[in-house]
Amino acid sequence: MLRKLLIANRGEIAVRVIRTAKALGYRTVAVYSEADAKAVHVEMADEAVCIGPAQVSASYLNSDAILDAARRTGADCIHPGYGFLSENAAFATACKEAGLVFVGPPAAAIELMGSKRRSKIAMQEAGVPVVPGYEGNNASDDELIIAAKDIGYPLMIKASAGGGGRGMRLVESESELAENIKRARSESKQAFGDDELILEKAVIEPRHVEIQVFADSQGNAVYLGERDCSVQRRHQKVVEEAPSPFVTPELRQAMGEAAVKAALACNYEGAGTVEFLVDKHRNFYFLEMNTRLQVEHPVTELITGQDLVAWQLRVAEGLPLPLAQDDIHLNGHAIEVRLYAEDPAHGFTPQTGPLLEFKPAAGEGLRFDTGVRSGDAITPHYDPMLAKVIAWGRNRDEARRRLIRALEDTTIFGVTTNRHFLSRIIANETFGAGEATTAFLQQAFSDDPSLQPQTLDIRQLALAACVLDHGMSGQSAWSNAPATMTPIKLATGDSTVELLVTRSGNRLSVSMGEVRHTLELVSQRDGLLCIIDNGVRQTCQYHRQGNSLYLQAFGQSWSVRDITHQPATGPKGVGSGRIQATMDGAIIDVLVEAGHSVRQGDTLVILEAMKMEHPVKADRDGIVGEVHARKGDQVKRSQLLVEITADQNAERESTAKP
After folding, report:
1. Structural fold of domain 578-656
2. What is the pLDDT of residues 278-337, one digit of tens each?
3. 132-201 has which CATH code?
4. Keywords of this protein's UniProt record, alphabetized (predicted)?
5. Cα separation of 394 and 331, whole Å?
6. What is the pLDDT of residues 194-215, one digit of tens each?
7. Annotated catalytic sites, by residue?
8. Neighbouring residues of 36: CB distance < 8 A, sequence distance ≥ 6
9. Which residues pair with 199 in a beta bridge?
């Protein structure tokens, strides 16, 4: 009997595994990096061990430190979660050699399915449909070019050793092939340490449908329905749902049986996901097998009523699967979205900083899988996912409605998120009709308002002014004071607005030029503003942090900075010259020195955060006064990096012009 489980992961998946393990009576051990010392999963576990600094290579990918933590705490089994070491055959082997049960498949199955070339050959031998292509062993560029002539165009170049879109290229014609092979090899080598490539005939605008499978050590294997993961951005899943609106009962059975064949062909044990591409004629083709629990497993749990982590632990104990295929039934519909700290209006740039307030919405059929809470810091070290938001309904439309409301009603202040982008997808007519393919976001959603920089309307500005003016005046002053007029200046993104606020009793009128909006205050306390707007009583949530004000209402969120009492920074369009870090991260290059002349928009510093490079640019013309950052520095959000002073000669020349 296994008694103590170490979870070799962090964040929401660690929290989710700990919750089930505790319910089943296991003692739990968390591991954490120095950056995660106060994380939710650390506090939830019975014991926790620090395994190194923030860098994943020195902590969550440090198998020696994880195995040492298991030894020190007396753990007898290890759950890898997803990502990190979950699909590392060497780690699974090391667990076995250390006398620990690895809660996952055998190392041989992980190794086989980790190679696109070898796994595709194995699936062909097992009778699983595959995309026509070329899988030569360590094929040279010339061999790939020759094979492409037989496959035809368009075709896909894929890295044999990995996924997630890295090392993957769509090639439309022969003239593009050689350069794309070169680029795919480079990406694959950098990402996976292996530059082996394969070729496949491109399936144009397919659906991405995966089958959840489970197998035990007694030779039993079942499938638990499918998940549709077609809504993707750059080959990364954004929305997942079960069942698929495109899959018929006959197709479900055929795909499920093929997935079971795939599992049995590699002597699989535990949870696995067999991914398929499905064309418009409902032909399906093996894509890959993920040898772990998937991020999107909750939608399967909600429609089957099963706890898949409990199934994993049962199989790890050597017990048979709890259900036979005929005992597995699907009920209702579930949809999951991944809520990220990222800015869709600026290329989905990861966001860092304090999560001032985070309160998941409550409601029927809702589930939030999260590893963060109010007050946590979103750092550049790890994936910026805040939560998986899942809604179940008796039918697909009910699940959609519940999910949209859950996204709109969840309180998030402090960091920009993709929440509005997600709710717009779920409400979209094409998605609602079940017609979204992998091309959906690129073709039908590229001009969506959620992808554009936010422009605040007078109503949103009036609500901000209402909070700020009330804060200055006080509740009693509102109801008794005579009419007053107060100017307010707000910064919204890269622009500023000047408002004139006229207050008389509980009525507040906000003017911006010729545009005016009037509100009546009902109450304001504990971060909740209640107003009457055009005869309609409504509420607005808010959080004030210094001069920054965060607001949420009408299914949208926005923020402003009160700069009413800040000194002017110079002529219109000229910044302060105090260049600050836009997020936590590492300085990977400094491009200027003191005394350099720069123009507004010039790149001064390159900041790396969450595996992406972010240029930090000059906000004005001038001369570099001081440089406060060096290559290799770790910096915090809003930390001063460079100071730019005015170019006195240029200013004199400008002043002298008639």
Report:
1. OB fold (Dihydrolipoamide Acetyltransferase, E2P) (2.40.50)
2. 999 999 999 999 999 999 999 999 999 999 999 999 999 999 999 999 999 999 999 999
3. 3.30.1490.20
4. ATP-binding, Biotin, Ligase, Nucleotide-binding, Transit peptide
5. 7
6. 899 999 888 888 999 999 999 9
7. 292
8. 10, 42, 54
9. 134, 157
